[in-house]
Amino acid sequence: MGIQAGGQRSQPRPVPDSAEARAYLQDYAALMEAVPFPSVVFDHRWDVVVANTAFHTLFRAVAPHPTAMPGDNFLRFVLFHPDAATVLGEHEASWCLPMLAHFAEAVERYGQDHELQSIRRDIAQDPIMDAAYRQGLPHWIRAVGPEATEHDGAVRPLLHPDPRWGADCRVVRETPKTLRDVGYSRLTLVLREARRPVSVLRTGHRPRRTASHLSVVPASSD
């Protein structure tokens, strides 16, 4: 298995402190590899600790990026990679805004974390995303309800490079106690089989984001 290369990581990949926890993580990685669906373990910064082959297959077509590869930091990928919308369908409403909500929670809990502060600075450099984060996000949460930000159980659009898979996935967030005790979480995207013949799937061009990464959440007029 192993982590997909691409770009340059600003920090070393997080690892547990104890040898026992590292051994557990190695065995857990073997368990994840047996899962046919994209699955990833990450820390409170969304730095990727372990990702299985199915996860790398899902994102195999994304271009190299210096800071936002999906196998490095999944939050940065969702927010900043120009190819994110080519895999994550309805990218802004279904993926970016929920991730911004979780990022806001992480900043509130780990406010002095250097990597979270670095992500916050990068958000501030994009005026549209910054307005969405500071002003639009609270309005969006009030409009759709806090349950819309929850990953676990959500059905979200997904554009898999293999046309055998359908156009959405069920997001399952499950973390055993041993992973939770070292500050890690696991996310799995349960794929659906395509309902239409392969020959008629994925005939159009996929979207690609431009320099401004958000547009659906207007700045508050308050």
CATH names the topology as Beta-Lactamase
| Poorly predicted sequence stretches spanning 5 or more consecutive residues | 1-11
CATH architecture grouping: 2-Layer Sandwich
Percent range for β-strand residues: 5-15%
How many strand segments?
Answer: 5
Q: What is the H-and-E element order?
A: HEEHHHHHEEHE
Helix content: 25-40%
Major sheet size, sense and barrel closure: 5 strands, antiparallel
Number of domains: 1
- Across the major sheet, the strand order is 2-1-5-4-3
Question: What is the straight-line distance between the termini?
Answer: 50 Å
* Count of alpha and pi helical runs: 7
* Mean pLDDT value: 85
Please compute the radius of gyration using only Cα atoms.
17 Å
Highest CATH level, the class: Alpha Beta
Shape: globular
Supply the helix-strand structural class.
Answer: alpha+beta
How would you briefly describe this protein structure?
This protein has 7 helices and 5 strands. It is an alpha+beta fold.
How would you describe this protein?
- With 222 residues, the chain is α+β, with helices and mostly antiparallel strands.
- The chain has one domain: Beta-Lactamase.
- Helix content is 36%, strand content 13%.
- The protein has helices spanning 19-33, 53-58, 74-80, 91-109, 114-124, 127-144, 177-181; strands at 39-42, 48-51, 155-157, 165-173, 185-193.
- The protein has a five-stranded antiparallel β-sheet with strand order 2-1-5-4-3.
- β1 (39-42) and β2 (48-51) form a beta hairpin.
- α4 (91-109) packs across α6.
- It starts with 18 loop residues before the first helix and ends in a 29-residue tail after the last strand.
- Mean pLDDT is 85; it is low at 1-11.
